[in-house]
Write a structure and sequence with these properties.
The chain has 178 residues and is α/β, with parallel strands linked by helices. Helices cover 25% and strands 32% of the residues. The protein contains 4 helices and 9 strands; from the N terminus they run βαβαβββαββββα. The strands form 2 sheets. The chain has a 6-stranded mixed beta sheet with strand order 4-3-2-5-6-7, with helices on both faces. The longest helix is centred in the N-terminal third of the chain and has 18 residues. The protein starts with a strand and ends with a helix. The relative contact order is 0.21. Bound molecules: inosinic acid and magnesium ion. The site of inosinic acid has 18 residues, from strand 3, strand 5 and helix 3.
Length: 178
């Protein structure tokens, strides 16, 4: 798997530092509350588990599966709910956990949905931020490193379902796509 990577964008060490910083910020801001962390499957799964372990305060963990991408690069144009939450979010403090914010379509749709369901607050934590492709101007309350406008894999991010379990973030060699 490592042989397919052309360059590393964030090393395993840099990933750990970024996650620890985000967890510390959240722990500070949500002290005394019991927020619901919502993992946006599947991409956020790796980040989500590391983040909640580093959070060290009461929290509920929930999972949603939505899709806005096909099996390649391009956005398919809409967000579908494939797996919904198991509990109501009414009057709850909700933290949506995403792997990366790209066009913003997924997070824009999810924020609106959860607010509409009566959450007390809805905030977003995204491991990576790719500002170069933003179409929907969603407020990313907590964001890790900004990344260049390239297709990335690793630490949850996939290409055709593969590479999510790389412990770092990188760019694939061009021949992998051909
Ligand atoms: P958005 O709705 O356009 O912001 O896209 C969000 C989703 O697209 C992310 O949760 C990822 O699953 C996927 N995505 C965006 N950029 C990349 C990338 O560089 N590599 C892999 N998946 C990506
Ligand atoms: Mg995703």
């Amino acid at each position: 798997m490592d042989n397919d990577i052309e360059k590393v964008i964030l090393s395993e060490e840099q990933v750990k530092t970024a996650v620890a910083q985000l967890a510390a910020q959240l722990a500070h801001d949500y002290a005394g509350k019991t927020p619901i962390f919502i993992c946006v499957l599947k991409g956020a799964s790796i980040f989500f588990t590391d983040l909640v372990k580093a959070y060290h305060q009461p929290a509920e963990l929930e999972f949603m599966d939505v899709s806005s991408y096909g099996d390649g690069f391009e956005s398919s144009g809409e967000v579908k709910i494939i797996k919904d939450l198991d509990i109501p979010v009414t009057n709850r403090d909700v933290i949506i956990v995403e792997d990366i914010i790209d066009t913003g379509r997924t997070l824009d749709a999810l924020t609106e949905l959860l607010s509409h369901r009566g959450a007390n607050s809805v905030k977003i934590v995204s491991f990576l931020d790719k500002p170069g492709r933003r179409v929907f101007q969603v407020p990313v309350d907590y964001a890790g490193p900004k990344v260049p406008n390239e297709f990335l894999v690793g630490y949850g991010l996939d290409y055709k379902g593969v590479y999510r379990n790389l412990p770092y973030v990188g760019v694939l060699k061009p021949e992998i796509y051909s």
